[in-house]
């Protein structure tokens, strides 16, 4: 199993602060809004899919569950 820390580092490296800010506005993450508290790395969906495909067989159900519990939107998307 690949280390989830490495997967998270790869996602973080692909992130873009400006894109993350835009996603936070789009997904209404402000106080009282439906996405309140959701956080973004600013990784595009195609890049997130590429990382998921790269590591498809490299982590088990425990790793998937850990990613699903992440506060980072892109990590949860990768797990799915």
Spans of at least 5 consecutive residues with low confidence: none
Round the Cα radius of gyration to an integer and report it. Answer: 13 Å
Q: What's the overall average pLDDT, rounded?
A: 89
The structure class reads mainly alpha
SSE succession: HHHHH
Give the CA-based shape: globular
Largest sheet: none
Percent range of helical residues: 55-70%
State the distance separating the first and last CA atoms: 17 Å
Strand residues, percent:
under 5%
Q: Total strand count, please?
A: 0
What count of helical segments does DSSP give? 5
Q: How would you describe this structure to a colleague?
A:
The protein has 80 residues and is an all-alpha fold. It is 57% helix and 0% strand. It has helices at 4-14, 17-26, 45-54, 61-68, 73-79. α3 (45-54) crosses α5 and α4 (61-68) packs antiparallel against α5.
Summarize this structure briefly.
With 80 residues, the protein is mainly α. It is built from 5 helices and no strands.
């Amino acid at each position: 199993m690949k280390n989830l820390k490495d997967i998270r580092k790869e996602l973080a490296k692909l992130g873009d602060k400006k894109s993350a800010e835009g996603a936070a506005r789009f997904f209404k993450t402000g106080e009282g809004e439906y996405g309140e508290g959701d956080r973004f790395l600013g990784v595009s969906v195609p890049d997130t899919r590429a990382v998921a495909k790269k590591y498809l067989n490299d982590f088990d159900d425990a790793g998937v569950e850990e990613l699903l519990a992440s506060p980072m939107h892109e990590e949860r998307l990768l797990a799915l």
